[in-house]
Design goal:
Elements: H1 3-24, E1 41-46, E2 57-59, E3 64-66, E4 71-73, E5 84-86, E6 95-102, E7 106-116, E8 122-124, E9 129-133, E10 136-137, E11 143-145, E12 158-168, E13 171-179, E14 195-203, E15 207-208
Antiparallel strand pairs: 1-14, 2-3, 4-5, 6-13, 6-15, 7-12, 7-14, 8-11, 9-10, 9-13
Bound molecules: calcium ion (CA).
Length: 219
């Protein structure tokens, strides 16, 4: 075998093993996501496991609720992660807070949010719905919900990229999703907000949190 073919064979073997690593690579939550880079993991943080004790009184489409009332089970087939989601955030300043611990400081975090909508077509953007990380507002592409079913049904959930190359600090990182408007969508809503299934963070850091699984005790 001449040198060229030796090199070619080695290159093919390296490429094949890299592909195998990528295929098996690093999703702690067990989903097969080929977009997760080698050395990183995708972590899923369910909205229904957030500490809801400070949510206070919020509005829905037909009446309101408080705290864990914002959690609802998926009664249909809306591609919901973990079977539950958070709605009722149709009140100005309604805030969903994720507290996530990182084992180190990184600049490589990709944050995805999994969203849906009910009742009307609308768009969320940084001008009506704020997302902050450790107090700093994240800039994100507007999310447009189209062909939304009437009240009582909703769009299937879908992943949207919230931000890439995000910096996480070592220790606690606080992500807040904040309804920031007073534009009613209809019914008893007093503000515009998405329905939130979960957020997903892909990073080379190791992330942990304290999911409040007892939120689902009443279901
Ligand atoms: Ca969920």
């Amino acid at each position: 075998m001449n040198r060229f073919f030796k090199f070619l064979t080695a290159a093919v073997l390296v490429a094949a093993s890299a592909a195998t690593l990528a295929a098996c690579g690093g999703n702690g939550e067990g989903t097969d996501n080929p977009s997760v880079p080698a050395g990183s993991k995708e972590y899923v943080f369910e909205a229904e496991y957030v500490d809801c004790s400070n949510i206070g009184n919020v509005d829905g489409w037909s009446g309101g609720g408080s705290n864990t009332d914002v959690i609802a089970p998926d009664m249909g087939d809306h591609d919901t992660s973990n079977g539950f989601y958070v709605t009722y955030l149709y009140t100005n300043n309604a805030t969903l807070e994720f507290k996530i611990n990182s084992d180190k400081a990184v600049n490589d975090a990709k944050i995805v949010w999994r969203l849906s909508a009910e009742g009307a077509d609308y768009t969320i953007s940084t001008s009506n719905y704020k997302v902050t990380l450790n107090g700093t507002e994240l800039q994100y592409a507007p999310v447009q919900f189209k062909n939304v079913p009437g009240v009582g049904d909703m769009l299937p959930f879908k992943d949207y990229v919230l931000a890439t190359n995000v910096s996480l600090v070592e220790g606690e990182n606080v992500i807040r999703l904040i309804t920031s408007n007073t534009t009613s969508l209809g019914g008893t809503t007093t503000a515009t907000a998405p329905i939130i299934d979960c957020i997903k963070i892909t990073t080379s850091a190791t992330l942990t949190w304290n999911p409040v699984e007892s939120n689902l005790d009443n279901f």
